[in-house]
Amino acid sequence: MGFFTLFIAGLASVIVMTASLMATHNHRIKFDQLIKVY
């Protein structure tokens, strides 16, 4: 039971980390596009 809870917590943290990385990557792309416009 403890291992399963630990596995779910680790999976959730990986998903959150991936989502945050994708968000920063998207912001970076938008920022680059703004710089190219100027």
How would you describe this protein?
With 38 residues, the protein is mostly helical. It is built from one helix and no strands. It is rod-shaped, with a radius of gyration of 17 Å. The model has no long low-confidence stretch (mean pLDDT 82).
Structure, briefly:
The protein is mainly alpha-helical.
Describe the SSE topology.
Blueprint: H1 2-37
Largest pleated sheet:
none
- How do the SSEs run, as a string of H and E? H
Taken from the alpha-carbon principal axes, the silhouette is rod-shaped
What is the share of helical residues?
over 70%
Distance between the termini: 56 Å
Helical segment tally? Answer: 1
Protein structure class: mainly alpha
Keywords:
38 residues; rod-shaped; 1 helix; mainly alpha; 95% helix
